[in-house]
Amino acid sequence: MKLRNLMLAGVAALALPAAAQACPAKIGAVLSLTGSYSSFGPPISDASALAVELMSQAGWQAAGCSQLTYVVRDDQTQPSVGVDAARRLIDLDRVAAMVGPISSGVTGPLLSSVTVDAGALVVASASSSPTFTEMARQGKLKGLFFRVQPSDALQAVAAAKLAWDSGLRKIAIVNLNNDWGNNLSRQFAATFVKLGGQITEQVTYNAEQPAYRAEVNRALRGDPQGAYIAASPIDGAKILRDWIALGGPDRYVFPLGMNDSKLVEQVGQQYLKNAWYLTPGAPQPNSRAVFYETYEKRYKFESGKGVGPGRDTGFDAASMIALAMVAANNYTDGKTIAAAMTKVTDPAGTPVMATVEGFKEAIARLKAGGTVRYVGAAGALRHDEFGDVSTPFVGWQVENGNFVQKKNITAEEVAEIKAKTGT
User: Fold this and answer.
1) Is 70:29 a contact under the CB 8 Å cutoff?
2) Which of 3, 151, 374, 384 has the maximum number of C-beta atoms within 10 A of its C-beta?
């Protein structure tokens, strides 16, 4: 009798749809838990995991499955490791959608070698290279790639405006020698020159060196008034210490990623009083405040200390994937999930905030066949046909150990400068 029951159970299992057999559903992530971006990866991963926790509390359900889990694999900030991590997520963990890498240098090979061919959706937490826009334009990404933060092509334009508005007319550039750093450097230089400024030196560096005195010496040639430094916080702190030791001027503009309290601690706030930190802004309305309050409570940060690059976008990436699964009533096919992203970010949809109550409403409306306008920590995002977003930007300075918002640059201003300068 027991044998017959087991045989019947086996037949019943075979008759179940693939989605039901795969339950619990999984959202994957490939992030830099170690390596040169290791200061970013763990907190971004925590934010993505928090999104999954809140979705579960809100009663997430798709294709008969009500269990949603989070699986993260370390790319070590290395392309080859990231490619292998993505393969393992897809082949072993049966993940159909994932939060994408931080480094554009990892994301590119991951897309071209693994995820697109496998039909897996990638929503990038931070990768901002314009390369992906061009890949999408050429049809190479097949609608399987979305961003949460804007392309470097926009960020660098905003940084050039920030530098110009701060009174800098002669500036040196020091950037990480990878896709992210080189694209930022090129776009910043082109825009700053078109605005009337001068690039005195453009110096690239390779990551994780013990010191950068030779690079800084080259950057100081030409008597710059300040520096635009595109680096990780770990390397950036070393570069800044060498810059200060060699008598460089204390005026800086930093892109997203350098807005890290650890960098300020390692260099010293007294040396960074004239530094500007650029980040994408969160268009109004947004869930930024409630997200950080929840994040800091969950991970036991003091108020304001849990704020850092990528946390909000990592949270939103996982949240949008989870909601797209509900909208698609599918969590095993990346193409189907990707096609449902528009139902989550519909400008005409019901606005829902990034809270448990907001997620409950979103899940109910999506299950009923409706659409929502997800208002995340990074704002209410809308993707174009290439998976790109446009946002305003914010200039921050450090006061009494805290990042204080000092300047706003609208998305319209960025578009106007880009059109005016032809960059």
Assistant:
1) yes
2) 374
Backbone angles phi, psi at 36, to 5 degrees: -70, -20
CA angle, 127 then 133 then 139, to 5°: 125
> pTM for this structure?
0.82
In a 13 Å sphere around the CA of 360, the CA atoms on its Cβ side amount to 5
Sign, CA dihedral 228-234-239-242, equals positive
- Give the C-alpha separation, 106 to 236, whole Å: 20
> If we measure between CA atoms, which residue out of 418, 415, 345, 349 comes closest to residue 382?
345
Q: Is the dihedral of CA 165, 166, 168, 173 positive or negative?
A: negative
Q: At what angle do helices 41-57 and 311-328 cross, to 10 degrees?
A: 40
Distance CA 288, CA 308 (A): 12
pLDDT in tens, the chain (423 residues): 333 343 333 333 333 344 445 799 999 999 999 998 999 999 999 999 999 999 999 999 999 999 999 999 999 999 999 999 999 999 999 999 999 999 999 999 999 999 999 999 999 999 988 899 999 999 999 999 999 999 988 999 999 999 999 999 999 999 999 888 999 999 999 999 999 999 999 999 999 899 999 999 999 999 999 999 999 999 999 999 999 999 999 999 999 989 988 899 999 999 999 999 999 988 888 999 999 999 999 999 888 888 888 999 999 999 999 999 999 999 999 999 999 999 999 999 999 999 999 999 999 999 999 999 999 999 998 899 999 998 899 999 999 988 999 999 988 898 899 888 887
The C-alpha R_g of the chain, in whole angstroms, comes to 22
Whether the Cβ atoms of residue 72 and residue 27 lie closer than 8 Å to each other: no
Long-range contacts of 205-210 (CB under 8 A, 24+ apart): 205/174, 205/175, 205/176, 205/177, 205/231, 205/235, 205/239, 206/176, 206/177, 207/36, 207/77, 207/176, 207/177, 207/178, 207/232, 207/235, 208/36, 208/234, 208/235, 209/235, 209/238, 210/238
